[in-house]
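Risk register update: the risk of archive-format incompatibility is retired. Evidence:
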Amino acid sequence: KRERKMRAALLFLLPLATALAPSSLSSSASYSSSPLTTPASSSSSSTSPMTMKLFDWKRRTADESSLNDVENSEFALNNLKPAPGAIKRKVRKGRGIAAGQGASCGFGMRGQKSRSGRPTRPGFEGGQQPLYRRLPKFSGRPLGPGHTRKIYNLIKTDELNALTAGSVVNYSSLLESGTITKSKSTLPHKVVLGKAPFSAENLTVQAHAFTKSAREAIEGKGGKCELLKVSTGEVMQES
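Archived output:
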């Protein structure tokens, strides 16, 4: 009985298969010849390779083929645009639960931080020692906004004691003689008083700045202090 049923089914399906074969072949050929495009891409005139969601509705159907052509396009002030997806709609709070920030607007239902107005002052940490009181305070001139400080490479008068009397001394000569190192050579140089007493006589010291005590020590031994320009290194003033 099973064999009879199978034979009857085959005899019934063979004419249908032969009748539908040419149409199916033609339809498959037509499908293969047509380009595979999605309805969204065919309706949109933009050729941008970006596939992410655009929140800016004006750019969803915009033609940006010229911007994507890097070789033939040039960015200027009149064609600069934000990246796709960079511009989003603002979050509308308190306008119903559909917006995601309705009712309590993301502040919760109870507590101090859910009340209107600022509940605490800036820097308040709930009663514990705040950060601005835990940090140490440094005495002296503040270095915050509005205050500047010049940084110098310091040359001590101790390093000038071994020089011969009547010589001209500057940073380059001290570096060549090996008296000082090359550290902080790009900074302007300032002569300061060292721990040992100054003993060199008749020296002409050239630097960008001198402390009051260093100048008095050099001039007390018959020397001379010459100020140099920071930009050119030339002698600016002799005293």
